[in-house]
Every structure is written in structure tokens, then in C-alpha cells.
Write a structure and sequence with these properties.
It is a single chain. This protein is an alpha/beta fold. The protein has two domains: 214 residues, no CATH class; 140 residues, abc type-2 transporter like domain (abc type-2 transporter like fold, 3-Layer(aba) Sandwich). It has 18 helices and six strands. The longest helix has 36 residues. It starts with a helix and ends with a helix. The relative contact order is 0.09.
């Protein structure tokens, strides 16, 4: 083997380590999953929308409107009972009910704007949850165009503004059993997303900041040999683990409080200028709700720190520690994107299980869940995250008692049973010889 090939082999061996491969694999899986999710959304948006239609107008223009809707969407109900139409629409998973009132044709014939009533059924508070209604709303543009063409054909061109816009839309949104008159799903999703965007961003920042502190501390202590000195002191390994976790958790909570005050003020200024007051519909949080959010955040933070400590145990130096923060960061990015664009209640069952299994997701979905009094989801999330955090801490304590803490690898069979300090002394003696 030539010298060049030996150098290449050496460099590949040093660079191609689990610490470098694991983050790349996780990133590939995450982006592949996100691509599948957005691809599925795009595919569902391209399918005909399921709508319900109530035609109270027997005139020619009412039939024109129905013909356009029937050719562009899948009509799951066509009758004259609004309550029955809403029930059928919800059973079919549709989101749009269009009502053509009895005076629709007569108003347009008398040079008055015709009114179309739209009732939107909104199942979730995410940005993507408003897309079906936005797509269905575009059908009304086609209705306008068809009516304009009919008016031009019939010579009804005296009122040019009416020909250009013959109809007007009156909207009502049913959002989780709350009836909101004159409000579109897009407006609701925008306000809800601005309010629920604060917590996911805070959780992300706290996890990245506190997690990097723990992993970097482990890598730095190994590189500077201060960890070996710490282990020789009359302190139990359990106390060392919990000391590191509590210290990092306190720093993380302090940063969370600072972020929450700053971002809360920023987003309150944005929401204050919005046309929708969620307090009118009971969508507010009390002091107890904020306490539950804080508990959920603390449990999630403890799990993140314990996980970072476990990863830090496998690092050999400060440089390797920097790459080990990527898996935790991208693991937190999954629920952040999910909560930003979708609602947990509207996710498929498999996606719900996956999101629930990620402890970082629970403080992110807690605020929105508490707005709708979904205490069962929040309390179960706190319990689950606490259990997972305790397990992670026990694993960290167990690994702290193994040789892998100093060697970065599992001990060989002949070295099992020896303490890390004893193994370190034996290696030192062998080097002296």
C-alpha cells in the first residue's frame, strides 16, 4: 500500500465516524419525511373539493352557479336543509357549504349584487388546515366568471362594475363548535398561528442552547482531562449527573423566560392589530394554563439535557461534541414544523403517534390544546415526557459508571469489572514502562 493510500485511509477512518454519520442520516430521514408530508398535502389539494350546496334560488343564475360548482367539485349534499348539509359535509370530511339565497337571480337582474353565503367548517388551527377552504373559495371566482359571461350574452352590460363582479361573499366559519360570523378560515389560522408560534420557537431555542452547553461541556472536559479529575473526587456519579442536568436546566429555564417575555411582547403587538379577538370566543389562557405549559416545558427540557448528556458521553473531544448536537436539534425541528403548519387534532393516526412520541412536541402543542380545554392531551403529554426524562436520566447515570465515559468505547471482556479510575491508572503505568 502506497503512502498516499495510507493517508487517504487514515483520513477516511477519522472522518467517517458515527458522530458524523448519525446527523447526516437523521437529516436525510427528516427531509424525506417532510417531503412526503408536503407531497401528500399537494396531492390532496389537487383532488376535487368536497362541498355541500343549498340552492334556494330557482332562477337561471342560480342554476348557472350550481352548474359551475358541480363541474369543479364533488358535491356531497344538494338540498334545502342547511343543518342536514352541515352534518353530511362533516361526515364526508368536507369543509365548504355554499348557500345560494332565493333572491340571488332577482338581485342581479335588478342591477344589484347577488349574495353567496359560505359556511366554512374548520377542523384545525394550522395554516394548512385553512387550505381546503381557500381552494373551495376559488370556485366562487369561476361562478363569477360564468355569471359575467351569461350577462354579456344576454346583453346585460349597462352596469359594467356589476358585470365584472356580480356576486359578493358572506362568510361564516365553524371552528371546533364555535361559530364565527364574518371571519374566514385564513384569518383564524393566521391569528392562531401567530399566537402558537411563540412556544415552538422558544422550545427550539432553549433545547439548542442548553443542549449545546451540556454536550460541549462533556467534550471540553474530556479534552482537557478535567473529567478524570472530577471522577476522582469523593462525589457519587449520580450527583455529578444530576448536578450537570439541574445546572443546565436552570440556565435553560432562565433563557426560556427571557425569550417568552420578549417574543410575547412582540407577538402581542402583532395580534393587537388583528381584526379577530380570540377572547370573544373563549380562546384565552389562565394562570393555571401557563403553569401547565411551564411544567411541560421543564419536563421536555430535562429530557433534552439527559439525551444530550448521553450523546456527550460518546464524544471524545470538543470538536466531536459540536456535531452531536445536530440529532437533538433536528429532532426538535419535526414537531416545530408540524405545529406551525398543521394541528395535532387533524393529523393522521400514525402521524399523531409519531409526534406524541417526541417529547419536544408536548410544550409546543400545549398552548393551542389548552385554548380548547383539551387538558387530557396536555396532562398525558406531561406524564409521558416525565417518564421518558427519568429513563434518560437513569441511562445517563448508568453510562457514567461505565468505562465508556473515559474511553469513548465499550470495554473489552478482560476489562469488564474494572473501575474507570483503575483502568486509567493501569494505562498510565503501562505507558511509564
Amino acid at each position: 500500500m502506497s503512502n498516499l493510500s495510507k493517508i487517504i485511509k487514515k483520513e477516511v477512518k477519522e472522518l467517517l465516524t458515527p458522530a458524523t454519520l448519525i446527523p447526516v442520516i437523521i437529516i436525510a430521514v427528516i427531509f424525506g419525511s417532510l417531503g412526503g408530508v408536503f407531497g401528500g398535502v399537494e396531492e390532496s389539494m389537487s383532488e376535487p373539493q368536497k362541498i355541500a350546496v343549498v340552492i334556494e334560488d330557482n332562477g337561471e343564475l342560480g342554476q348557472v352557479a350550481f352548474a359551475v360548482l358541480n363541474s369543479s367539485a364533488e358535491i356531497v349534499y344538494n338540498g334545502d336543509d342547511v343543518k342536514e348539509a352541515l352534518g353530511t359535509l362533516e361526515d364526508a370530511g368536507g369543509s365548504s357549504l355554499f348557500v345560494i339565497p332565493s333572491n340571488f337571480t332577482s338581485n342581479i337582474m335588478d342591477n344589484r349584487t347577488g349574495t353567496i353565503e359560505a359556511v366554512w367548517v374548520m377542523y384545525g388551527a394550522g395554516l394548512m388546515d385553512s387550505l381546503p377552504s381557500e381552494v373551495a373559495a376559488s370556485l366562487l371566482t369561476s361562478v363569477d366568471q360564468a355569471i359575467s359571461a351569461y350577462m354579456i350574452t344576454m346583453g346585460m352590460t349597462e352596469n359594467a362594475s356589476l358585470v365584472l363582479q356580480p356576486t359578493q361573499l358572506v362568510e361564516t366559519t365553524i371552528f371546533k363548535d364555535k361559530v364565527m360570523d364574518g371571519i374566514s378560515p385564513g384569518a383564524i389560522a393566521g391569528v392562531m398561528s401567530s399566537q402558537s408560534f411563540v412556544m415552538p420557537l422558544i422550545v427550539m431555542m432553549v433545547i439548542i442552547y442548553a443542549g449545546s452547553i451540556v454536550i460541549s461541556s462533556m467534550g471540553s472536559e474530556k479534552e482537557n482531562k478535567t473529567l478524570e479529575t472530577l471522577l476522582t473526587m469523593p462525589i457519587s456519579r449520580t450527583s455529578i449527573v444530576f448536578g450537570k442536568l439541574v445546572g443546565a436546566a436552570l440556565v435553560g429555564l432562565l433563557m426560556a423566560i427571557i425569550y417568552m417575555f420578549g417574543m410575547g411582547y412582540y407577538f402581542d403587538s402583532l395580534v393587537g392589530s388583528a381584526s379577530i379577538d380570540l377572547g370573544e370566543y373563549g380562546l384565552t389562557l389562565g394562570v393555571g394554563d401557563y403553569v401547565l405549559v411551564g411544567i411541560s416545558l421543564f419536563a421536555s427540557l430535562v429530557f433534552a439535557l439527559a439525551l444530550c448528556m448521553i450523546l456527550g458521553i460518546f464524544t471524545k473531544n470538543y470538536k466531536a461534541a459540536q456535531t452531536m448536537t445536530l440529532p437533538v436539534t433536528f429532532l426538535a425541528m419535526i414537531p416545530m414544523f408540524v405545529t406551525m403548519f398543521t394541528d395535532f387534532d387533524t393529523l393522521p393516526t400514525v402521524a399523531k403517534v409519531l409526534v406524541f412520541a417526541i417529547p419536544f412536541s408536548h410544550p409546543m402543542i400545549a398552548m393551542r390544546s389548552l385554548m380548547f380545554d383539551n387538558y387530557a392531551l396536555v396532562l398525558s403529554g406531561i406524564a409521558y415526557t416525565s417518564v421518558v426524562a427519568i429513563i434518560a436520566m437513569l441511562v445517563a447515570v448508568t453510562l457514567f459508571k461505565k468505562d465508556i465515559l473515559l474511553t469513548g468505547k465499550v470495554a473489552r471482556s478482560e476489562e469488564k469489572g474494572r473501575s474507570p479510575l483503575g483502568s486509567m491508572i493501569r494505562r498510565f503505568v503501562l505507558k511509564r514502562k
